[in-house]
Amino acid sequence: MVKICCIGAGYVGGPTMAVIALKCPDIEVAVVDISVPRINAWNSDQLPIYEPGLEDIVKQCRGKNLFFSTDVEKHVREADIVFVSVNTPTKTTGLGAGKAADLTYWESAARMIADVSVSDKIVVEKSTVPVKTAEAIEKILMHNSKGIKFQILSNPEFLAEGTAIADLFNPDRVLIGGRETPEGFKAVQTLKEVYANWVPEDQIITTNLWSAELSKLAANAFLAQRISSVNAMSVLCESTGADVTQVSYAVGTDSRIGSKFLNASVGFGGSCFQKDILNLVYICQCNGLPEVAEYWKQVIKINDYQKNRFVNRVVSSMFNTVSNKKVAILGFAFKKDTGDTRETPAIDVCKGLLGDKAQISIYDPQVTEEQIQRDLSMKKFDWDHPLHLQPMSPTTVKQVSVTWDAYEATKDAHAVCVLTEWDEFKALDYQKIYDNMQKPAFIFDGRNVLNVDKLREIGFIVYSIGKPLDAWLKDMPAFV
Ligand code: NAD
Ligand code: UDX
To answer: Which part of the chain is the UDP-glucose/GDP-mannose dehydrogenase C-terminal domain (predicted)?
Structure first.
């Protein structure tokens, strides 16, 4: 029986390995992590991450051919294939701070693999890493190997949160990069056979190591670039009376462009886009390519601009101050169908409103008060470090309250901001919400999910990203 061990039981390691276990009953899969609470949660009824469809798979496979453990060394020692799916955060200090990927967790995993191994292994980069990381990892493994042979593969993960299981069941492609040597080709073939249990062979792309590593950064940069492009258009729409939804549709029906990923929003979030683009920018700078670095940096700049201008729009519409006004926030996760808040635009929007002394009341169906308070008190980039390294009792932001009920969050509020596109927000009783709010009552839809005409009929002053502006908003200087 082939044995797989995955180091890192996070948003990627957990779901990916659960699907491998489900699709390959002849493979034993162990997912290991240094975080005891995380592993305990994987072994409980309350999984550490919310992902539609995940719980069923874990329940089917756990204890049969899927195991979660903190005994990292034992499982690595026994494995034929070791996936490394640890976090690769943006560096917060030292050389490349604020841009470069911090490979501390990766390096310590590689050193541990070299230390404990007693048989040859294939080591798979599952984490997103800077191009050429495999070379560094090879050096660490070779110099500490005691004669054991390691083959490094790059097998970046393309799943998106909220749809992880569907993405893993039916990926657009699986990408495997390896050394172009007989041993390298053999290792690629071994991993290919794992995926071939459920992925059609022509969808398994094999490349050299550096192409695979760079393709992952490139894919995320292209995806984020589409969002920044449509968000840049949304500003122009507001100035001219064009409607960004109509523009996106008209542009996206060109088959060369395609319709996906053209939804204007308050800004993209999530653990990957910003981190990976900053990493790409840093790599370009290190390779003496300042023009290319600037080009990609602009994707982040537009995203920051979009979040700032949303805050400015809220404040300027409400007579240029939100001091002591209750502002309800509907949605805190970075997208629907996940409880993940890493780099969610809600953090920057809330911080902006708090800077103007608003009283904020937040409702998200999947995010706890503890998580929100932690996010709002944490420094930029500190979030992507293992939970056990994060402050246990962060300072509570007193102007913020969190509730499990949208009607309570919006009661007596001057304004409502929709920051995540949860389906349930479309079905709320907005007449009831309006009746219980201060007047004039404002709604700022950062996801373009609400029925603007209906809200206006009820009496709301409505702002929806990239849509023709209400007369009220036109009259208020927007400072965007
Ligand atoms: P995560 O923070 O959820 O999980 C990483 C886990 O690794 C943590 O639980 C941490 O405790 C553990 N870990 C760190 N060092 C360790 C060590 N030395 N030994 C054992 N465990 C260790 O991160 P994630 O979202 O799963 O992302 C992992 C990687 O995959 C990142 O490089 C990310 O960029 C990439 N990625 C993420 C996504 C996504 O949607 N989240 C998608 C594709 C790729
Ligand atoms: C992303 C990539 O899509 C995935 O391939 C990679 O493996 C990890 O990073 P993820 O961050 O989980 O996945 O979610 P994604 O669906 O890409 O959304 C990212 C952000 O962009 C979210 O905040 C989302 O709301 C926003 N977004 C997405 C838009 O604002 N508009 C869109 O049209 C699409």
So the answer is: 328-452
